[in-house]
């Protein structure tokens, strides 16, 4: 029996874009429709991205000490979150971090710094890092994320070898002023436009779980479609202690999958990336989410730890996907693994694993 979501997938594959009502229907699907939604969205994912997963790696060039008051952010003005705080990494330190991600299978390195936006000196610093990185790893794709851009800065980054620029809109325009007051929604859109006009691939996404309504989640996704964001990172709020959003828990694993599926229906041919908070919120449904999204971050995030990189790579393989740009292991064979022996519980003096 064909589900209503299969019918929607048929329409999208035939070239009819999803509407706001379609997006709301996906987001509000019943629990017993979850697999129907995933199966239908997976058809779009497979059509445009096959069985590949793009692996991205974050390098946090400068952490904390930010003058902006984004209420969700552990690095923001007023945050008392217990995080690492440091000024700019040296080029050598940044390259060492990037090399670790590339060794783990990443094909894109995201070079990120906290702050409202870069000075021209900061841009030159990043340009030097990118130039050196590209010399040592010419195949790597580099995305910069340095905050709000001034005129000419995107062009300088492009000339240095940067391929993409990330600046998330984070939430709907109608909700923006509730989560940050030190810059406007228009400021964010302007930076995405500057990056695109300079020839950088625009990367812009959102954060779910900020107290937004269903309609505002839809509003944000349609704004990203309008902005023609090539890559859409979908973050799930990590409610750091010491921020205004501490103890804010609005998401379930199933809802996170539905949000990703909605992004796929609305933007079927765009990279949909499972970003910050996936381990915390998707939990055991991370693998299911890969059948909808086609991109993840490997390892750690800006101020929080992710799961082990090897676990990420196993997650990809276990669900029948291959890392984009890797040598596909056709037979999927694994080396010999000696199962862990039970040495606790019944018959021992050690407490059981229960």
From TrEMBL:
Homodimer. Belongs to the radical SAM superfamily. Biotin synthase family. CDD domains: Radical_SAM. It comes from Nocardioides marinquilinus. [2Fe-2S] cluster binds at residues 110, 143, 203, 273. Keywords: 2Fe-2S, 4Fe-4S, Biotin biosynthesis, Iron, Iron-sulfur, Metal-binding, S-adenosyl-L-methionine, Transferase. Residues 51-278 form the Radical SAM core domain. This is Biotin synthase. SMART domains: BATS, Elp3. Its cofactor is [2Fe-2S] cluster; [4Fe-4S] cluster. SUPFAM superfamilies: Radical SAM enzymes. The gene is bioB. HAMAP family: BioB. It comes from the Bacteria. Residues 330-354 are annotated as: Disordered. [4Fe-4S] cluster binds at residues 66, 70, 73. Binds 1 [2Fe-2S] cluster. The cluster is coordinated with 3 cysteines and 1 arginine. Binds 1 [4Fe-4S] cluster. The cluster is coordinated with 3 cysteines and an exchangeable S-adenosyl-L-methionine. Its EC number is 2.8.1.6. Pathway: Cofactor biosynthesis; biotin biosynthesis; biotin from 7,8-diaminononanoate: step 2/2. Catalyzes the conversion of dethiobiotin (DTB) to biotin by the insertion of a sulfur atom into dethiobiotin via a radical-based mechanism. It catalyses: (4R,5S)-dethiobiotin + (sulfur carrier)-SH + 2 reduced [2Fe-2S]-[ferredoxin] + 2 S-adenosyl-L-methionine = (sulfur carrier)-H + biotin + 2 5'-deoxyadenosine + 2 L-methionine + 2 oxidized [2Fe-2S]-[ferredoxin].
